[in-house]
Each structure stands twice: as C-alpha cells, then as structure tokens.
Amino acid sequence: MYPINILFEDEFYFAIDKPAGLLVHPSPIERRATNAIALIREQMGIKAYTVHRLDRPTSGVLIFAKTSEAANKLNLCFAGRRVQKTYLCVCRGYTEEQGVIDYPLKEIIDKVADKMANPNKPAKDAVSEYRRLGTVELPIPVSKYPAARYSLVEVKPKTGRKHQIRRHLKHIFHPLVGDTQHGDGKHNALFREHFGLDRLLLMATKLEFVHPFTGQAIEINAPVSGWVDQLFTEFGWQGLYPAPTAIDEVQSDRPD
User: Fold this and answer.
1) Is residue 1 included in any domain, yes or no?
2) How many CA atoms lie within 13 A of 199 on its CB side?
3) What is the mean pLDDT of the chain?
C-alpha cells in the first residue's frame, strides 16, 4: 500500500510526496494499477483536482486543488510559467558544471491513450537549466570502461514537455540512471545488480509559486527517500540534497 505523505495543505490546495511507481490518475492502459487520485479519495476522503503531473517512475512534490476554481487558477500559473519546479537526478558520466538545454521536443504519442492524435505535429520549445552538485566514480567495469562515472544534477525545467528532463539529459549524452525508456541499459543493469535499484533516479524536490488566492510566496519541499539517502551517502553526496527526517526514513520506494 502506498502511504499518502502530505507536504503542504491549506483550504485551497494540498501537496503530497508521490512515491516512485505510483500513477497520478487512472490509466486506460493499466486499469488495475493504483493511482494517486484513488488513494487520496480512500485515505483522505476528498476529491482531488489535478493541477500538474509527474511521470509514474518519478517521485516527489505533486500538488492538487480542492476545488475546480482553485485548479483553474493554479493551472493558469503553470501555463504562464509562473511555477518553478526543481528536480534532482543521477545521470551517466560527468556533466558540465552548469548549463541550459534548449532543445525542442516532439510530443510523445501513446498508441492507446492518444490514438487519435496527430503524430506529425512539430516539435515544441523545451528549455531546462541544470547544475552539477556532485560526482562519483565507481570501480565497476561497464561496457569498455574500467570504471563508471555518475553525476548528481539539479534541474529546473522552464517548460513542461512529457519526459522533458529524461529526454534533455539524453540529448546531451548523460541519460538518467534507472530510465528504461530513454536511458542506458548497461548502467541501469549496474545499479540494479550492485545497489538493488528498481526505480528511476529522478525526484521532484521543490515547487515554488505565488498563491493565486492569498498572494503568499509558497515553497514546497520533498526530501529524498531513506533508500535514496543511503545510496547517496555511500557516494559521498551528503549535504547536497534535501535529506529525509526520521519520519521520512520509514517511507520506502517500494509499496508493501
């Protein structure tokens, strides 16, 4: 069972720390899969209005509205790019210390859910800012190399295209660890075999916006899970990311 961990709540909105592997809403492809909308209804007894989404394998800050009016107002903030999102990820190789990826992305068409969509739509603008927080070299051979190198990277996407961070990091030849769609299978296997990894190392750690009703500056933070914290500590990355509290550490990346 996935627990609902509330990060923020007022009379208009609430944000949860979405676990990796949890769908945001029901899917026509995986009708029996657990989703956040249903869990919120079951565990909190309220109806949640979707404002934005996180990919199923991504964990972290996910905000919902309590009314359709509140959803519409915050949706306008997202559409107007007045919401700042911050992500933490691990990617193959050593990235530049910082940079901007300005690379248009074509819409990803789902064969079932989007079967009526036009596959020939032009690519849309997509911009991601990033900075490298840390690096690690593991004495584990991979492919033709005697050791494996990885970067801990903070990313602030300025647009909201599907799989944007995953596709952008792949575009600069630094695919994310644990990404089965856009990643590197050899490095995914290394993490699976040596560290027991069974998730994408991409986490939505912060969401910032001006409250549409109160005008207050809102900042919502999500710590990494206890398991990710242990892995990052092993890599010497302590203090470079939002670590879990004692309560957070009991949370797992895996459902019961």
Assistant:
1) no
2) 22
3) 91
